[in-house]
Amino acid sequence: MIKKRRIRKILIANRGEIALRIMRTVKEMSLQAAVIYEKPDSESYHIRLADDAILIGDGPRKDYLDIDRIIWAAGRCHADAVHPGYGFLSENPELPEACQRAGIIFIGPPAHVIRVLGDKVTARAIMEKAGLPFIPGTDNLPAGEMGVRAARAFSAQVGYPVMLKASMGGGGRGIRKIVSEADLLAQLSIARAEALSAFNNDSIYLEKCIEAPRHVEIQILADQYGNVIHLGSRDCSIQRRHQKLMEIAPADLPQDVLESMYEKAIQGAREAGYVNAGTVEFLVDPITNDFWFMEMNTRLQVEHTVTEELTMVDIVRQQIRIAEGNVIDIPAERVQLLGKAVQVRINAEDPKNNFMPEGGKRVEVYQSAGGPGVRLDGAVYQGYKIPMDYDSLMVKMTIRGYDWEQTIQRLKRALEGFLIVGPKTTIPFYLAICDEPDFMAGRFDTGYLESHTQIFEYQESEREIAKLTKLIAEIHAKKTNPYAF
Question: N or C: which end of the chain has fewer CB within 10 A?
Answer without folding.
Answer: N
